[in-house]
Design goal:
Layout: H1 6-22, E1 27-33, H2 38-44, E2 51-57, E3 69-71, H3 79-86, E4 91-94, H4 104-125, E5 129-135, H5 159-178, E6 181-187, H6 199-202, H7 206-218, E7 224-229, H8 258-264, H9 273-276
Parallel strand pairs: 1-2, 1-4, 2-3, 4-5, 5-6, 6-7
């Protein structure tokens, strides 16, 4: 049997070293907000590889703490509760808030006021690194024929997208003035597998989401970074060249689901805005009022 070429062996060794490094427990206590949500549940066990103690928070009761866990319930709109939630943590993975389009009132409370409360608490308690779950809906009104990177101006497709654009701006302010490093992860579509043809471009596996968060937590210098949350999909609208310093290397791909997705879904109507714009159904949702 022929031996592996030295350059291929070296590349594989370097990748392994990177994966090992990204799994180091660099933070003693890591806070995960939105722990009761779908992505919070997917990350709960995975994030224990990144810390000694995982503090879990949501505004609703989601059961008892497990091994190496703490649970601290808090409504993001309650500044005092958020202040208590953040005390004693070393870094934050912020998934909490409203995750869909809807009436502005709840979005305002959770995604805008709640975002301010979180960053102000981080400032007061000296937390210097946050991974913020932003969204691809910050740029949802770019066309599916466009390829954009983090330098493209925001074009939100919804009030939800507007709230995430606010979060990106607020986190930049807290970096520029107070030195709190943030990764704004514009999550695409993170599910067990792609549900439709749009998700063949936007899909992010749960394992790749964890790899991305791990890279953001472990990279030596994060600064204020915007990175698109996607797996290694053949079709994509997003270019992560502005975030090479983060060190994220996706290892999954939507391509293995392509045949099945095509078989169970109809041809898109290219006259429909839902098929024209990257935000999909969010571009046509609502209005929902206050």
């Amino acid at each position: 049997m022929l031996s592996e070429k030295p350059e291929k062996s070296s590349a594989r060794a370097n990748l392994l070293k990177r994966v090992i490094k990204m799994s180091l427990k660099l933070h003693h206590t890591l806070l995960l907000t939105g722990a009761a949500g779908g992505l919070g549940q997917a990350l709960r066990e995975r994030l224990k590889a990144n810390c000694e103690v995982l503090r879990l928070s949501d505004r609703v009761d989601f059961g008892p703490a497990g091994e190496h866990e703490e649970i601290m319930l808090a409504d993001l709109a309650d500044a005092q509760a958020v202040n208590t939630m953040v005390q004693g943590v070393n870094a934050i993975v912020h998934l909490g808030g409203v995750s869909v389009e809807g009436a502005f009132g709840p979005i305002l409370q959770a995604n805008i006021l709640g975002m301010y409360n979180l960053y102000e608490a981080a400032r007061l308690h000296g937390v210097k690194r946050i991974v913020f779950a932003s969204s691809n809906h910050v740029t949802g009104f770019y066309r599916q024929s466009d390829t954009i990177d983090a330098s493209a101006p925001p074009r939100p497709d919804s009030l939800y997208g507007v709230s995430k654009a606010f979060g990106e701006d607020l986190s930049r302010f807290y970096f520029d003035r107070y030195g709190i490093e943030t990764a704004c992860v514009r999550i695409g579509s993170s599910f067990a597998e792609p549900r439709d043809r749009r998700m063949l471009a936007t899909w992010l596996s749960f394992d790749d989401l964890h790899r991305l968060i791990s890279a953001c937590l472990s990279t030596p210098v994060l600064g204020h970074s915007i990175i698109f949350g996607m797996s290694d999909n053949a079709v994509t609208w997003w270019d992560n060249r502005c975030a090479k310093h983060v060190g994220y290397v996706p290892q999954d791909s939507s391509d293995v689901f392509r045949d099945a997705v095509y078989a169970r879904t109809p041809e898109p109507n290219l006259a429909d805005p839902v098929a024209q714009f990257q935000g999909g159904g969010f571009v046509a949702a609502g209005p929902f009022g206050l």
